[in-house]
Amino acid sequence: MTKDEFRIVFIGALTGGKKCLKALLDARENVAAVFTWSDGAGKERSCYEPFDELVAAHGIPLVKVNDINAHDVVEKIRGFKPSVIVVMCWSQMVKKSVIEIPAHGTIGMHPTLLPKNRGRAPIPWAIIKGLDKTGVTIFYINERVDAGDILAQEEILIDFEDTAKTLGEKVDMVAEKLLCRAVREIREGKAKPIPQDNSQATYWPKRNPEDGLVNWAQKPIAVYNFIRALVKPYPGAFTFVSNKKLLLWNAKSPESHNHRAAAGQILKFDSLGMKVATNGGSVWINSVELDGDKERNGEEVKNVPELREGLMLGR
């Protein structure tokens, strides 16, 4: 099938979705329409990025929605007569009424090596769990969560210094490449989908902003992983000082050593920021933001009025 004959309806949002859409457009695939979140709904999400300018530059219809499964939205999708539907970085489950519209299926992306680690918040969870690798999977969407046949998959190494932001950037680069390949293979009739082994499936739960509370009683590596997993654009790991929330935007140098301090006690300040005791060691906090104050980095951390050596962080 030629590119002109092969019509794509793209459903997507956020930075990663925009990058994938741009990759399809750069490959001169025939994107017939783009569906994204309404302005109000989109701005409430991490990694929000409007699609308006990109879509307008290519003269493509842009439809903004609150519910992709609403009857009127489904009929609009059907009206564009898609050969395939591509769903990228879309947090809402796409139902059967949408999935079954295109003759060549509906495909999506999950940033893990499926069938492992299906479910929510895959980038933060991979770092929190201390994994040394994750991946990207392009797959056919069905009515089960992240369970459809695999079209393309690639492993991604997680470096010790990676944060949610840098790992997300790695995921985006691989997703763009694999998506274009999968679309091309479907269009050319060369796709060879592989069923997932459901007996090997594992699941990660949804994370909420309140789940970012740091447990200083963990080992230093666990605290370090937790903080770097929740940096911007995610809501951030946090603790409390003087009953105010203290966001922790970066951490370095987890160290295992003996000390007599209680977990959560500030040990010292220097150019790195502040050193905080954990269970059996410590971790350096390099960037903080006290509720109502500005973000402070490195040496500036000691200028947060409420912070001082010996202070216990937490409630």
Can you tag this structure with a few keywords?
315 residues, alpha/beta, Rossmann fold, Methionyl-tRNA Fmet Formyltransferase, Chain A, domain 2, seven-stranded mixed β-sheet, six-stranded antiparallel β-sheet, 24% helix, 29% strand
What does this structure look like?
This protein is an alpha/beta fold and 315 residues long. Helices cover 24% and strands 29% of the residues. The protein has helices at 14-26, 39-42, 52-57, 71-79, 96-99, 122-128, 164-187, 220-228, and strands at residues 7-12, 30-37, 62-65, 84-88, 106-110, 118-119, 133-140, 150-157, 203-204, 237-241, 244-256, 266-270, 273-278, 281-290, 295-297. α1 packs parallel to α7 (164-187). The termini are far apart.
Short description:
The chain has 315 residues and is of the alpha/beta class.
Which CATH top level class of the largest domain fits?
Answer: Alpha Beta
Strand adjacency order, main sheet: 3-2-1-4-5-7-8
Please name the fourth-level CATH homologous superfamily of the largest domain. Formyl transferase, N-terminal domain
- What profile does the largest beta sheet have? 7 strands, mixed
Explain the layout of strands and helices:
Layout: E1 7-12, H1 14-26, E2 30-37, H2 39-42, H3 52-57, E3 62-65, H4 71-79, E4 84-88, H5 96-99, E5 106-110, E6 118-119, H6 122-128, E7 133-140, E8 150-157, H7 164-187, E9 203-204, H8 220-228, E10 237-241, E11 244-256, E12 266-270, E13 273-278, E14 281-290, E15 295-297
Parallel strand pairs: 1-2, 1-4, 2-3, 4-5, 6-9
Antiparallel strand pairs: 5-7, 7-8, 10-11, 11-14, 12-13, 13-14, 14-15
Helix pairs in contact: 1-7
